[in-house]
Amino acid sequence: MKKILIVLSVFAMTISCGKLEDLNKNIKDPVVVPGETLFTGAQRRVFNQMVSSNVNLNNFRLFVQYWTETTYTDESNYDLTTRTTPDGLWDLFYINALKNFKESAKVIDATPLPAGGDPVAKKNKLAIIEVMEVYCFDVLIETFGNIPYSEALDINKPLPKYDDGLTVFKDLLVRLDAAIANMDSGSGSFGTADNMYEGDVALWIKFANSLKLRMGLLLADKDDATAKAAVEAAAPNVFSSNDDNAKLVYLGAAPNTNPIYIDLVASARHDFVPANTLIDTMNSLNDPRRPFYFTQVDTSTQAGVVKLAYVGGINGASNDFLAYSHVANLIQTPTFPGTLFDYAEVEFLLAEAVERGYTVGGTAAQHYNNAITASIEDWGGTALMAANYLTNPKVAYTTAAGTWKQKIGIQSWLGYYNRGFEAWTQFRKLDYPLLVAPPDALSPFPMRYTYPIEEQTLNGDNWKAASTAIGGDAVDTKLFWDKY
């Protein structure tokens, strides 16, 4: 009897231990995640960051005075510390994007091809990931200046050093060239796991060259020879129509809706109105994109009379949401596409390249006209609308006021609406339009994000060295490419 009890006790202990071990197992998360899935997630994170209007992540629409705030006006007045906005962008790119892109490449490279698998398609995938990594590092450099790069994402280097921005930038151009050379449009890549181009390698080649064009021109005032070589090499292979635009079409249900829908509609908040800086400029030019950008508001002071107009909120002030135009309903729909890069931007860049004396074909006026037309058509306007707009002496390239920087700067600012980061970079490069800081601004106009507070506290020595190298960790410190 005693033996039976002992056996039963041992059996019970075995079962109990087995059950306890089972309780410690994670049965919900996959043990191995496919590299393609990691790519999809990282790609979506990048789009969400660039599209978002969440003030914890993306204040660029406010910097370039596309929008201004209503009740809480901190960000419109250049407060980057209350909500630690730089930390949010930094973490998203390093942790949620670059880390996953790196792991995606590692998994895809290590995964054996199935029987009959296409080695060229695998090579294309790795090159596409490389292009996205270059894009992410480029955004970080344009935002902060010197950044962790050579030691970034290294688990053995928890406190990475910061590398010189110009050195990193030139290395990114080398990496971009290698990625372009490694892509073969005769084979596929990610297929439907790629939410931007559905694996179309020919379009990825155009995107990579368009990115090279933009990065090259960013160096024009710092290193003209490198800029010229990059721009002229890229120009023949860039976007050639709106069909090439780098967009992500969001879905109609959470959690895959457009972030603006989440911020403006699902949240039931009324935090933003279009800024008077933008609307007043577009009104003065009778810009045909206004109904695609904004709603109208009744400005009549007489009972029973309706007088609709586009009216922007006062930049930096506390604005009554109901008294001003709103962001157009189209932009607030859950399925409205997010845009990372478009043909209009490429044509504005080509116009700039011509003016800088680079050999890219065409005239500055032709590219300028193409850019404006592409923008109007992409927003839902017609070629006739664009043609009529371009006859306005204030718009036409030959008669519009100012230097080429002013002409291209103002019209690209109008064309990049809803793409605040690109508009911010273009403004810093060309110094147009002339944007006046609000009366209650807490700092000069932001020329960069300050480094994250978590870097100051956790990686202090490297943060201090980087801050000294760039001329001070201040919002008005101009970066290496923005010296004029």
Q: Layout of SSEs?
A:
Elements: H1 2-23, H2 35-51, H3 60-63, E1 67-69, H4 85-110, H5 119-144, H6 165-182, H7 201-218, H8 224-234, E2 246-248, H9 259-266, E3 272-274, H10 276-285, H11 290-293, E4 297-298, E5 308-309, E6 338-341, H12 343-355, H13 364-378, H14 383-390, H15 404-415, H16 420-430, H17 453-458, H18 460-470
Antiparallel strand pairs: 1-3, 2-6, 4-5
Helix pairs in contact: 2-4, 4-5, 5-6, 5-7, 6-7, 7-8, 7-12, 12-13, 12-15, 13-14, 13-15, 15-16
Description of the structure:
The protein contains 18 helices and six strands. The chain has a single domain (about 35-255, about 335-455), classed as Serine Threonine Protein Phosphatase 5, Tetratricopeptide repeat (Alpha Horseshoe), CATH 1.25.40.390. It has helices at about 1-25, 35-50, 60-65, 85-110, 120-145, 165-180, 200-220, 225-235, 260-265, 275-285, 290-295, 345-355, 365-380, 385-390, 405-415, 420-430, 455-460, 460-470; strands at about 65-70, 245-250, 270-275, 295-300, 310, 340. The longest helix has 26 residues, at about 85-110. The protein starts with a helix and ends in a 14-residue tail after the last helix. By secondary structure, the protein is mainly alpha-helical. The model is unreliable at about 1-20 and about 25-30 (pLDDT under 50). The chain has a two-stranded antiparallel ribbon. Helix 2 runs antiparallel to helix 4.
